[in-house]
Structures are given as structure tokens and as C-alpha cells.
Amino acid sequence: MPEAAPPGNSPSVPGIPLCPSEALAERGRAELFDVRLWGQAARAFVLRFDGRPVAYVNRCAHVPAEMDWQPGEFLDAEREWIVCSIHGALYEPATGRCVGGPCRGSRLIRVTVDESGGQVYWYPSQDVQPPAAAAA
Ligand code: FES
Questions:
Q1: Alpha-carbon distance values, 16 to 27, 34, 39, 47, 51 (Å)
Q2: Whose CA is nearest to atom 1 of ligand 1?
Q3: Which residues line ligand 1 (CB under 6 A)?
Q4: What structural domains and CATH numbers belong to the chain?
Q5: What is the mean pLDDT of residues 88-105?
Q6: pLDDT score of 13 more than 70
Q7: Strands 31-37 vs 40-49: parallel, antiparallel or unpaired
Q8: 3-state SS string over the chain?
């Protein structure tokens, strides 16, 4: 699969194919993907919210633990908030800002994503890099 040109505000790194656009239903289940966060293996997720894909490292701002209550299930029953399954922190899906719970005011670590030609791409940053096997 060809790499994508970076989105307007992203550094000049190529996009990494993540999933087909149709895999992300509005406020549906997230796609999980492997990354390295600060050099350590980690997981990230992408979901569609208000029509746009948004992605974050799967790591709560309260305790560095994965948040999904089942694999790929991050949203609450009303499909309004990303909810941490451990102590119930609530995050705004569009911004990653914690609006309730023990880490109120903190943020999830965003992963830049873009969508073109029916494909979703993610863009590495200084903090969030491809998994080791893909980085070679
Ligand atoms: S680990 Fe997420 S709210 Fe405590």
C-alpha cells in the first residue's frame, strides 16, 4: 500500500496505512495498532467521531494502563465519551482532554491521523513511533 503525503500541519514524515475508512463506523468500535511510546512497546487506537478519525495512545492519563473495557471498545453507553474501564475517567473524543474522573484536566497522547482515498493513515511523532519491526 502506498504511503500518503503528510496532512497540512504534520511534520514531513510519510503516513503509515492504518485501516480502511470503512472499518471505522461513526462512534463505533476502535481499531487497535502497535506503536512505540518513548521507545517502549505500546498500543494505540483510532475511532471515528463526528465523521473524523481520531487516534490516541491506549494509555490512561491517571495510571499508565490500557483503557478499553473490551478490545477496541472505548466509548461509554451513550457513545459520547472515551471512558477508562479502570476508574472511569472520561475523555472528550475530539480532543483527548479528561473531563471527569481522577485525572481531570489531563490529556490522552494524541496520534495524528488522516484519511484519503478510503484509507486511514497515521503519522509518527517524536514521542510515538512505529513498532520496532516496522521501523527498520
Ligand atoms: S487508570 Fe484510567 S481512570 Fe484510573
A1: 23, 12, 18, 16, 20
A2: 63
A3: 60, 62-63, 65, 67, 84, 86-89, 101-102
A4: 16-127 (2.102.10.10)
A5: 96
A6: no
A7: antiparallel
A8: CCCCCCCCCCCCCCCEEEEEHHHCCECCCCEEEEEEECCEEEEEEEEEECCEEEEEECCCCCCCCCCCCECCECECCCCCCEECCCCCCEECCCCCEEEECCCCCCECCEEEEEEECCEEEEECCCCEECCHHHHC
Q: How far is CA 35 from CA 2, 8, 118, in A?
A: 19, 22, 22
pLDDT of residue 14: 77
Q: Please, are residues 122 and 5 in contact by the beta-carbon 8 Å criterion?
A: no
Report the alpha-carbon distance of residue 91 to residue 71 in Å, rounded.
Answer: 18
Nearest CA to ligand 1 atom 3: 87
pLDDT for 133 equals 66
